[in-house]
Amino acid sequence: MLTLGWISWIVIGGLAGWIASKIKGTDAQQGLFLNIVVGIIGGLLGGWLLGVFGVDVAGGGLIFSFITCLIGAVILLTIVQFFTRKK
């Protein structure tokens, strides 16, 4: 089983948050810190959602962790955009 340290989670979260912000078109609005936060929270969200569907997220490895963070970050940014979009 692969366990990642804090620095690894920050790097994975930052990269996932940055790519998610590029996908959602919000990169110009957020900086490095917010990309990291979105990626880490997205990882928690993605891990929880996959767990709900019965996917074993604990033993997935580095690539699976990154993809989980990316999917969660895109979902998180979509939710934020839904509630903050101008009418």
TrEMBL record:
What topology does it adopt in the membrane? Multi-pass membrane protein
Q: Which UniProt keywords apply?
A: Cell membrane, Membrane, Transmembrane, Transmembrane helix
Q: Does the keyword Transmembrane helix apply?
A: yes
Q: Which cell locations does it reside in?
A: Cell membrane
One Pfam family per UniProt: Transgly_assoc
Q: Where are the transmembrane segments?
A: 6-23, 32-55, 61-83
InterPro entries with a match to the protein in the record: Transgly_assoc
Give a yes or no for keyword Membrane in this entry. Answer: yes
Domain of life where this protein originates: Bacteria
Q: Which GO terms describe its cellular component?
A: plasma membrane
Task: Give the protein family.
Answer: Belongs to the UPF0410 family.
Q: What is this protein called?
A: GlsB/YeaQ/YmgE family stress response membrane protein
Organism of origin is: Corynebacterium suranareeae
